[in-house]
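Format notes (please read before filing issues)

Several people have asked whether sequences and structure tokens are stored in separate files. They are not. Every record keeps both together, in the order shown below: the sequence lines, then the token lines. Line labels are part of the format and must not be stripped during preprocessing.
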Amino acid sequence: MKKVFALIAIAAASLLLASCNGKKNADEEATEGQEMVEEGQDQLAAAQEEIAAQLVGVWTATMPVADSGKKATYTLTFKADNKFDLVEAQAETDASKLLNVTDADYTLDANKVVLGENGQLEFADGKLYVLNEDGTRATQDDVDYVYTKVVE
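Then the structure lines:
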């Protein structure tokens, strides 16, 4: 009986030592967690820099004009300094009534391009998809509103 009790005591002591040695203290866990957060932030920043570099240049889209039955061509030019120009062109329309934005600021939020008061776009598959106010892709008759980059 003493041998059984001694074996149980030794086994319990071994388990206790193993469990204490296997645990990290709170400071080590916090440090590892902070390192993971910083690594994720670095990866996000690198991805956004890559997107920003791909945006620079001229993009065009032809989209319907609300309630008119006409179509307009939009030319969106992204510059390296986080600025953009946006010009609307429609046949037989007074130029003063068309959209013409110059040197406005844009920001990146992951793969979303925010054009200030001029809406937001989603960068995916080398294209820019126009987004509705709720963040879904804008479509008409199952056709996406899409900007494509002009090859120079």
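For reference, the curators noted about this record: The first helix runs from residue 2 to 22. The mean pLDDT is 78.
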